[in-house]
Amino acid sequence: MAQNISLSVQSLDNRIRDLLAAGDLQGAARLLQEAHPANIADLLEGLDEDVRLQLFRNLQLDHAAEVLDEINTEATLDLVGAISNESIADIIEALPVDDAVDVLSELSSERAEQIISHIEPEEAREIEKFLDYAEDSAGRLVNSDIARLAEGWTVAQSLEFLREVGNHGLTLAYLYVVDREGRLIGLVPLQKLVTERPETPIKAIMKTDVVFVEATADREEAARLVAHYDFFAIPVVDARRRLLGVITHDDVVDILQEEFTEDVQRQGGSQPLEGQYLATPIRVVFQKRVGWLLVLFLTEMLTGTVMRVYEHELQSAVALAFFVPLLIGTGGNSGSQTTSTIVRAIAMGEVQLKDVWRLLWHELRAGLLLGIVMAAIGFGRGMLWNTGVPLALTVAIALFAIVLWANIIGAVLPPLAARLKVDPAVISGPVMSTLVDATGLIIYFSLARWIIGL
Amino acid sequence: MAQNISLSVQSLDNRIRDLLAAGDLQGAARLLQEAHPANIADLLEGLDEDVRLQLFRNLQLDHAAEVLDEINTEATLDLVGAISNESIADIIEALPVDDAVDVLSELSSERAEQIISHIEPEEAREIEKFLDYAEDSAGRLVNSDIARLAEGWTVAQSLEFLREVGNHGLTLAYLYVVDREGRLIGLVPLQKLVTERPETPIKAIMKTDVVFVEATADREEAARLVAHYDFFAIPVVDARRRLLGVITHDDVVDILQEEFTEDVQRQGGSQPLEGQYLATPIRVVFQKRVGWLLVLFLTEMLTGTVMRVYEHELQSAVALAFFVPLLIGTGGNSGSQTTSTIVRAIAMGEVQLKDVWRLLWHELRAGLLLGIVMAAIGFGRGMLWNTGVPLALTVAIALFAIVLWANIIGAVLPPLAARLKVDPAVISGPVMSTLVDATGLIIYFSLARWIIGL
């Protein structure tokens, strides 16, 4: 097994709680600082607000800064709310620019401005430059703390430069070569630099075919490129192709996980929560769900209207009603199977808009096969219930048609949403069920009228 | 915008198709080799099988190897199926061990053995060592091509060693320090090494508190650790703590994306597909979906049984049936909202089994609020339809109870599944709808009997 983080966090947690119970706050803070910032953040999130604040105040500046960057939004707001602008400014100055931007993004813009006014002017300008980019843009994630090599240098000069600037958090895995205007012109992996002969000119070993993003691009675009090319980091440039910094693999993992979480929640039929689930107040959980639940409820009212239209048929053969939940449930299920697969294929870039006919053809055939199986079993079920051949036949054909119909609209709606610049993930299981319910009932009762002749 | 890969792939694609149309296979292969292997793989996947094979045969060995590693399973099987064991063995020898293991894993074990018998014995043994680990284990992803530093060396000796071994695909971002038995004892980031003074002993600058995984651990465990600590790579050791190699950030991104795709498909109510959607034969799509669809269909038959039990009530007031789809649909929707959020929170490690009471309390309150809103609107709808106060009241109370019930079981079932070592993602939207349908009808008809007094 792995060196188990939850276990070691657990034992640390217990020891810290013991020290806190004994009133030894400094001892607890000292012990806490031995842990990785990601684990400190986890521990603090689990403590009561006042204890968390006391411990946080007793952390060294560097540790406090890293913890503030790792901790969740709710805990950040609690801590920042209880600490003066000056102290928070000191903590934020200890962070790399991208993490400082990240923390400040979570605060109200007034509070962020107050804090920035206490940060040293040069760094404040740097932070404000990146804060100006839109919230989901690549610019917001730029780590500007990178090593830039001049185009005229040799390997030896570059290594000398790296030794001079030292190891102060610089992201050195890739070294970027810039021209006099600071424009990105090439890239040298550090591992290539240390294995080349000292007198080799940088220009001779740099890779010039560099993939980059503009700071205004969507952060998902940056994440997709890093995932596609297996990059360690991707350079970010401004409109004039001047190198601003990089987005690193760890940010990409965070982006991917956040986007996944949002997509799953959308697919479940609600708006995505922004923070961790248990830390989200009920009021917010309610707000994120009630909108879609109402829209679906109002759409679902169509089913009542359809059934009223067929009131006569229902009254003549109340057994028709017995199959209603089974039919619409199965339609919803097969629609949900289709959309979840296709929405994900679109998100992974496996399927584009132009593939809509191939999608349709794929799902049409899958729907035919699934529809036939369901129809056969539905017919058997109808016969076993002694509902008579006409009703059993109606149920069987309706099942076949509804499954096929659900697969067709499940194949077509997600690319259509993408075409309309709507996240395909909103075509969720619940949306599919709701759409299939009313239309499925029309199919069912029309067949009943025709076959049973009510 | 970013340097757009789909655009550049598109233009390359067109140029290659032009060359192929003109019969210039070598020209097309030469052009293809200018692209990144990830893009070559995308292009080849889009071509007809025979053209793909011809182009692949004309790639240089290194390129062919990288493409084989990047291409999807279906295309790999096609290509490998058409090429001799000797040629495939040559291509696989050009790959790092972890990628070689990856490609061989996709083949039948007979074919893999035939190919391995043509690989140079030393490398074959190395490949077989990692192939012996279970399919979803960390051992399968180990990149053994890393630089190991001896515990007695200095910074200068280490840099000299790195220059000697050269830059042959070695993953040098972290350098691992091992003792005489090859056991992992420490770690030095390359960027620290190049910024330290030459005479410094490695032991003085190495970090000894190294997080690692055992090769037998689940690959998801490795991915979670890398994501949690923002690592570039994580070392993998055998049972005696001897360093086998590392799992790098790009594999972690792949693991996360694969796991996520599987979870989304499970949440949609089907078994996960293994390859890309459009490349998956209809037969397989059918097989992955029909199982759950049948299980849900058979469970959903309970709704028919429930409705037969209340046949008398339905016959007395056929208007009761009008509300059936609306009620069970709303229950399914709110259940789906709950499970999608909770299943994801479990997958992200935000929620553990011990939190089940907190989950329940959270969803109970959310369910109360949502239930009240739905009940109010349901009552209004009933009154507008002139169904009379008793039926409107029945619908309203039933809506309230069903939403609350759906939230409760949606909160409890995913952690219960985890407890039973079942992937919580199988508690999907469709499973929730199906469970809520029959129980929701019992609630509805019981209320009707009691309030309307049928």
Could you please describe the fold and organization of this structure?
The structure is a homodimer of 454-residue chains. Chain A is mainly alpha-helical and 454 residues long. Chain A folds into 3 domains: 5-136, MgtE N-terminal fold; 146-258, Roll (CBS-domain); 282-451, SLC41 divalent cation transporters, integral membrane domain (Tetracycline Repressor, domain 2). Helix content of chain A is 65%, strand content 7%. Chain A has helices at 5-21, 25-32, 37-45, 49-57, 61-70, 73-81, 85-93, 97-105, 109-116, 121-131, 155-165, 190-193, 202-205, 219-229, 249-267, 282-309, 311-316, 319-322, 324-347, 356-384, 389-419, 429-451; strands at 146-150, 171-178, 184-189, 213-214, 233-237, 243-248. The first copy, chain A, has a 3-stranded mixed beta sheet with strand order 1-2-3. In chain A, helix 7 crosses helix 9, helix 8 packs across helix 10 and helix 19 (324-347) packs across helix 22. The interface between A and B is large, with 129 and 129 residues.
